[in-house]
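Running co-folding for adenosine-5'-diphosphate.
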Amino acid sequence: MILNSVGATIVTNDANLNSKKAFTPSSQLPESFSKDIVSDAQDIVLPNHFSNHTYVAIDIGGTLAKVVYYKSNSEQDCSGGRLNFAKFQTEDLDRCIDFLKFIMAPRASATGPAPPLAATGGGAHKFLAKLREAAAPREVVVLDEMECLISGVDYLISQVPNEVFHYSPNPTNPLDHMQFVPSPAPAEKYPYLLVNIGSGVSIIKVTAPGEFERVSGTSLGGGTFLGLASLLTGEGKSFDEILELSKRGQNSSVDMFVGDIYGQDYNKIGLKATAIASSMGKINRKDLREPASDSKDSSSPVYASEDLCSSLLFAISNNIGQIAFLNACRYNVKHIYFGGFFIRGHPVTMQTLQYAIKFWSEGKMNARFLRHEGYLGSMGCLLNLNTTNN
Ligand code: ADP
């Protein structure tokens, strides 16, 4: 579908609470869905896009199912509409299906047949029968995942103001870390690299609208982070709880630093004593490790969950940052965008990815982040829906 994005703005919970409250679709949602919507609310208001139909796209990945939908602001359709975002655990797809049924319910004011449900991601194939049942009488159209991802990122970086930012912490306000990057002029936009960090990681070189190649990737991604964190700290924690632990942890109790090996900086090759030489490398060095205070048995020390999560977050993020940089060099690409739900707007993750890019490029490159980082595929899926008959 072609969205009229003139005057598009992002509405966030904190920055624009009042206007959001005034007409948030989530206020009409059953209470049971509020957390899926509100926790990630960064709706995009489209004051000049008019349609009485609700357009819905879903990207069902290895871990999360992401929904984007366009809805007009009122049944009378006189004030444009907005893009709404929601996510569910893929393992809890039935809740997501209930949600789809709710938002796709016929609207009194909509005339003509409702547009198809657009679906992408592996789950669009795996769960097609379920989606068809939920969407009826709408059809379900399955679209290619990579094409959707690229359409989504292309749209967001060029059509939505204040979407792209560099991570730049403000010492007086820890919540303020976005240094916005203006939408690129058409001649400046390509080529770029998209590093999408979902359960796994895909690295895609984009050279023109719709022209791209998946040039690299790694299986050490967000799923690995979740899986190893569960093994190391015990199952049953949510991703946000693990991030929270990592924020409070000190990786120095488990990571082996250059200083642990040299006793000082290794200046000749530019390595500071505080650089991580080996992630979790201290665990096997009895002489270096400092067991957590609650450990009674020094031969099998207990490491604090916080420290292990911190170390793991650095390990995964540094690794991805380095692979991203190497691919940027390999293809002579200056701009690197990071997407995928692993980032989750988390300062430490962004700082680590950014540090890796800056460190390896000797300050010549910087990482770019997106506010709708986790919704690139579902956003593109909505855009790639052929709506000529709707
Ligand atoms: P996929 O399409 O493979 O599901 P996503 O871009 O949705 O990929 O990212 C999934 C990853 O995001 C997870 O592996 C995890 O690291 C991270 N993540 C962020 N928020 C959550 C959450 N609420 N639940 C589970 N994983 C989450």
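Result summary
Residues 61-64, 121, 198-199, 222-223, 225-226, 239, 340-342, 344, 374 surround adenosine-5'-diphosphate (CB under 6 Å).
The chain has a mean pLDDT of 90.
Job closed.
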